Amino acid sequence: MRRAAWAVAALVLAAFLGFEALTYGGWAWATGALGLIGPDLAFLAAIGSDPRESGQGRLAPRAVPAYNLLHRWQVALAVTVAVCFLPISHAAFVPWFVLGLGWLLHIAVDRLAGYGLRDADGWIRGRRHVAVADRG
Does residue 10 fall inside a structural domain? Predict the structure, then answer.
C-alpha cells in the first residue's frame, strides 16, 4: 500500500515539476535537476572512509546523518512550503520552489524503489542484511 502511495506521489510530483520547468525554463531546469540529484550528494560524505564500513548496500556510518536529513520527506516538504510564504519576488520564488519539487520527487522515487532511511551502521532501515563472511 505504501509503495502505491509513493508511486502516485512520484507521478504527481513529476508532472508538477515538468510543468513548472517548462513554464519558467532557465533556472527552473537547473534547480529542478539539482533537486533530483542533490539528496544523493550525501554519499560524498563517505569519501575517504574505511572500505570495511561500506559496500554491499551499506553506507559509511559517517555519511548517514547527512543522507537521512536529505532523504526525509518532511524536511523537503517544509522547505518547499516555507518558500511559498517568504516575502520574495516571483523570480526568486520559482527556482526554490522547483528545487523543492525535485527534492520531493527524488525521495518519492527512492521510496518507490525500496530505498529508505539508514540506520546508524549505514544499512537501509528495516532490511535484513547478511555479512559476506556469514554466508558460507
Answer: yes
